[in-house]
Amino acid sequence: MSLATQHTFATYKKNNTIEEGDLVSKENVILIRIQADSEFCCKFGNYKHSDMIGLQYGTKLGSNTGRGFLFLLYPTPELWTLILPHRTQILYIADISLIMSFLDLKPGRVMIESGTGSGSFSHSIARTIAPGGHLFTFEYHQDRVAIATKEFEEHGLKDLVTIECRDVCKNGFGLENKADA
Amino acid sequence: MAALNPSDIINAGEHVFIKMPSDNVKCIVLKAGSSVSLGKFGTFKANDIIGHAWGNSYEIYDRDSKTRVYHPEGISEVEETANNNREIVDDPSSQKLTLDDIKALKSEGLKGELTGEEIVNKLKESHATFDKKTAYSQAKYLQKKGKKFHKVFTPIKPTAYSVNEYFYVKNPAKIRDIRMDTLSQLLSYSNVHSGCKLLVVDDTQGMIVSALAERMGGKGTILGLYDGDNPHYDIVKYMNFNQETLDTIKVLSWLRIHRPADEKTPDEMQDVTQLTGKDLEGYHRRLKAYNIVEESRKTLFEGNFDALIVASQYQPESILEKLLPYVAGSRPIIVYHGTKEALLETSTWMRKCPDLLAPQLTESWLRKSQVLPGRTHPEMSTWGTGGSLLTATKVIDQPVQAALTKRERLAMEKKNAEAKKLKRAREEAESAAPSPAPVVSAEDATNVAIEEEEVIMTTTITTTTSTSTIEPIDDDNESRSVKRVKQE
């Protein structure tokens, strides 16, 4: 399986059709990566990934077994916040949105986040400051750093986010004159 | 990189908010070389702050209204004393200075002879019972007097947040009561980002369009549909947008979406070769206006918008019906209204609409708190509503052969099996003798079609039983999974 397309949470794809390698959210539950030979099984039925390829995002797809259907949605930071696996308590959309407005975040801003946690807020920030901005995020827990790094990479946010394992209360940020927020 | 943006410093000719010690905010256009009057707080020269970075407060001092950066005292812990209000009587004679004395002090302050702090100190010293007050009461007294006599002002940069706050306090009707928390949630749900294409119906005088344009950073398109002659996006001018950002905002009148009978195309306009001077200029002006409208029309008809945002005085369903076809799949639809009752009918309509997924009606609460050491608590007066949001996702509905109960599924499978058998029989007959086949297959086709329809209807009905309740936004339960209906 290859990440053939520039698929990222930060912006929509140009043609809005599902291609191999994309991430697709089933309504309310799962983020899946499309692979040509896979099948997706859940309580709403069986779905072949190959059936999904070529469909527009937002399509309602019926199951192979004739039981149930699902909606294929484009992954957004808001959906991710609702379905991500919690490693820590996360911020939800109400707080995330107010903080982003208060900090005057927009494309091109550079921001520092301390306490990456499970990366919920990080995804929203990355989407808002793209393109041209950058998020420096710090987390002092080794395992969480590893998981978050993997997620940022898989979600196409590697260029927008730099995560570092560091205790900022003790050791500072290691940055000078860089951030807007 | 955090390079210094032009918007990070105070520029001449831009809108600026000035916050005064009384917590009132005044909006001015900062003209270079002018003097800005703040009423009883004095006057300052615009040039003294042009070119400075945002974030400082300035104090007016001395006779010729010089300004200097004001460094407020840090908030320190207030030590509790044993004082109480047992012996304090609310008596105007506690303050030894007369009204005339105070007026004199005030005018001396305006002239620059005394600083605000000195005036407040004098008032404190001539207060007979000041020492009897509790420490908190003393601090509150000094703060209150400071609000009247300090000559300190703070320039505030207009952003979606500060502009919204300014209007929400000064004139909420203008922006249809949309408060910052609701507005920022609207921005999140819409997934607005650089380069996207948004369809907006904005009756909040442009508050929503301004916030969206700010988040798009000059790339992408906003198409605003408006009623009447003018979009009335008054608030856009307060944001000090650069031309690139302003160019992302396109507008189109509802009346002009399809060319009205009285609009002339360039070909129908007067013959160019025979025009001179003023007539020629007029022709070019009309041509330019026509081209702008044509381009907006083109943007609309191309469709594939990344979000639809409606904040209109009109019934939302009528607008949604017209505009939903232009929105791409898996994109958010957001309806804002000042009251949630107005959105109830729309949410019912949305639940029945096969092109919309999971409508959700929310209202947000925002509460201000006083934050001071030892005295942090919510403020005594609270804000009313900040408006409500109705959100849903546009989906592409398809006739789906799905049965959600066992009985339905078995019935469907049986019919499918029969159809297959007939088809196989037909194929065998075809390979033997081709002619009788068409008649038989036509019948089968009709049968199969009917079965599909039956199954589809069942599916649609069960979908709409998913609940969508009004819930405060601090809940995170948004279970919208399709529920199976047990039919017995």
Fold and architecture overview:
The complex is a heterodimer of chains A (181) and B (488). Chain A has 181 residues and is an alpha/beta fold. Helices cover 27% and strands 22% of the residues of chain A. Chain A contains six helices and nine strands. Chain A has helices spanning 49-52, 77-83, 93-102, 120-129, 142-154, 168-171; strands spanning 23-26, 31-33, 39-42, 45-48, 60-62, 69-73, 110-114, 134-139, 161-165. A four-stranded antiparallel sheet of chain A has the order 2-1-6-5. In chain A, helix 5 (142-154) links the parallel strand 8 and strand 9. The N and C termini of chain A lie far apart (38 Å). The relative contact order of chain A is 0.14. The model of chain A is unreliable at 1-7 (pLDDT under 50). Chain B is an alpha/beta fold. Among the domains of chain B are: 6-73, Vcp-like ATPase, Chain A, domain 2 (Roll); 92-149, no CATH class; 162-260 and 293-394, Vaccinia Virus protein VP39 (Rossmann fold). Chain B contains twelve helices and 17 strands. Chain B has helices at residues 99-111, 116-125, 135-149, 160-170, 180-189, 207-216, 243-247, 277-302, 316-323, 341-352, 406-432, 437-463; strands at 15-19, 25-29, 35-37, 43-45, 57-61, 66-70, 152-156, 197-202, 221-226, 249-253, 307-311, 331-337, 356-363, 369-370, 377-378, 388-394, 471-472. In chain B, the strands form four sheets. Chain B has an eight-stranded mixed sheet, with helices on both faces. In chain B, strand 14 and strand 15 form a beta hairpin. In chain B, helix 4 packs antiparallel against helix 6 (207-216). The model of chain B is unreliable at 434-488 (pLDDT under 50).
